[in-house]
Fold this protein.
Amino acid sequence: MKATLIIILFMVAFPLSAQEPADSARTVLSFNGQITGWEVTKCPEPVSWQTGGRFLPTLLGEYSWGENSKLSFEASAHINGSLNFSDWNYVDGYGEIKPYRVWLRYSGRNWELRGGLQKINFGVARMFRPLMWFDSMDVRDPLQLTDGVYGILGKYFFENNASVWLWSLLGSKQPKGWELIGSARRRSEIGGRVEFPVFSGEMGVSTHHRKADVHLNENRIGFDGRWDAGVGLWFETSFTRMQKNSYGIAVHQDAVTLGMDYTFAVGNGVGMTLEYFRYHAGDKFMRNGTNLNLIGGMFTYPVSVLDNLTAMFFYAGNHSDMWFNYINWARTYDNWSFYLMGYWNPEISLLLGGQNESKNLFMGKGFQLMASYNF
């Protein structure tokens, strides 16, 4: 709340540029948000179910002056709670109130600087994301919600669509993305990214350095690229090296995704996305240790202007053959969105969303009904 009030006062009090007339300045404030409710039922005996709700109130502001200068902010909270039952017997409950986004951005014609609690994500993969370094978005979540990170992010955009990103983050003990352990508290993490066009597509190179919670140095580098060759083709990789240690923490952590998509001219158009994903963590680069191989398929079909159908299938090969199955029917109006989701999975978590702090609702067999209102 204090951060929100400071941002509002700064927006109102920020002086006009001495080179611009007063009537060229413009201030805009708006309040919106999202209210969501859900009910999850799991089918094995005894039947278990969860009912819950979420409220994301958001305050937005913008102050512009001159031809390109702009100051903007977002302040939002994440208020959520749920109740768990087995048959009709109450098991437990959960509730939480925390900041969701609190950032201030200053931007010009071809650059921007944003500081505060924000979402930072990049990469081209759809289902299996090696470059999920700072978020925990799950492709199966229709709302694509994720916690943010505290830091400063600067971007510069060139005329040929190339861009340079630089960031500095505040370390937290809560692991982000694919991190095995959290970071040393209040120690800066630094990194950057370059995106540039290559033939008919584009590539990106990313790097990041941090000190892990046990005060071990960790360095990452990632590469990604996407091209259109009649079908969409892409790759995404991430290679992490942790300082050698006696804590049993893997020294090497590497992930590779290869993907393609295509839309078939059937009915309203059937969209198909296929990805292969390999993840490894161990003491040798891409060898020994723990390995995970996944093949995923996502199919989408716009049934009508209001309705969309999505089906996903994931196959994990390794030591035991496992299938993960998910289907989602969505109906969207101007402000309302309704989702009916069904899943048939093993009783284990498939960490498509990295270190997710919430209970994995897609384990086992069941269905979920969700309604979301945006105002």
